[in-house]
Design goal:
The chain has 306 residues and is mostly helical. The protein has helices at residues 8-34, 42-60, 63-87, 92-110, 136-140, 145-163, 165-175, 177-182, 187-213, 225-235, 240-263, 269-287. Helix 2 packs antiparallel against helix 3.
């Protein structure tokens, strides 16, 4: 066992990378749930984004086009959820689970010819003086642009929900859709836009895994990150900055257990691999006793005839 092989600077830098797909998916789902919709299809939208982004990136040679395709792919898959829950008024939980199963199957089919191919690399956003700073430089200023996009998106969603008129309307729809409808707001339209935003964010998170975190395509490579993102929204009490903290906690535990495996710690690999999920569940149990942040109309369908 050689713990000295673990570099703390690299550990923190890779923690941020591990947290980013989770953060992107969680922020998207947070907006969806704020609108009063529970979409359990995050995993399906992430894996679809992962293969759409990977395929387009390989075919065009541009990771940026790959990420745009991933956002579009995730949003298109979320349209299925829109049709089922907002048009046909199907059960949201069952529809979300169906979406995940469909996404996993579709991505496996689409990705058959991409196994073993390496995608084009995305450049790092090296900031001239800041990137060269000792310790702080590699941790904060030597990452890919999408990592910073995730943090900016968190700040933007927080601001919109807290201070803008659009955020107020979104929260009103999530709290009491009948009252929002009575005030003249288009409840279905607002929820559809929120669901599409959530799908696009999940798609971006999936592509981050296949293009940056693990630059390759393997079937089912999201490996439960979508489910953790769903749990994270609850852990964050539907607050964006807490989602950021939660994503970094999960990312940290993931990276630490990988480093411990590499250092040859005398703990069975299976236990180490389980640890991020166990710790996330434990934190959820401790913190989710307070349900005060949950939108009152979460999971309830809106009937336009009301």
């Amino acid at each position: 066992m050689d713990l000295s092989a673990i570099n703390p600077v690299l550990l923190v830098a890779s923690l941020m990378v591990a947290a980013t797909p989770l953060l992107l998916a969680a922020i998207g789902e947070l907006v969806v749930e704020k609108a009063g919709v529970l979409n359990l299809g995050v995993e399906g939208m992430m894996i679809t984004g992962a293969i759409c982004g990977f395929a387009i990136s390989v075919e065009t040679g541009s990771p940026w086009l790959g990420f745009i395709a991933a956002a579009i792919g995730g949003a298109i898959l979320s349209l299925l959820f829109v049709l089922m829950t907002q048009v046909a008024l199907a059960n949201q939980v069952a529809s979300g689970l169906a979406l995940t199963l469909f996404g996993l199957g579709l991505s496996a089919l689409m990705g058959q010819s991409y196994v073993g191919i390496k995608p084009p690399a995305m450049g790092r956003l090296d900031l001239p003086v800041l990137s060269d700073l000792p310790v702080v430089g590699p941790i904060l200023f030597s990452h890919d642009p999408i990592l910073y996009l995730g943090i900016l998106l968190t700040g933007a969603v927080w601001w919109v929900l807290k201070y803008s008129r659009a955020g107020l309307i979104l929260r009103a729809v999530g709290e009491n859709h009948d009252a929002a409808h009575a005030l003249g707001y288009k409840v279905i339209r607002i929820r559809v836009l929120a669901i599409l935003f959530g799908g696009a964010c999940a798609g971006l998170g999936g592509a981050y895994i296949s293009l940056i975190r693990v630059p390759q395509w393997t079937e089912g490579m999201t490996a439960g990150v979508g489910w953790i993102a769903l749990a994270l929204v609850v852990f964050a009490s539907w607050k964006p900055w807490r989602a950021l903290l939660g994503a970094y906690l999960f990312g940290g535990v993931t990276v630490v257990q990988l480093n411990l495996q590499a250092a040859g710690v005398a703990i069975p690999v299976e236990y180490l691999a389980m640890s991020p999920y166990l710790i996330t569940i434990l934190v959820l149990v401790i913190l989710s006793a307070d349900k005060s942040g949950a939108p009152a109309a979460l999971g309830r369908s809106f009937h336009a005839s009301h």
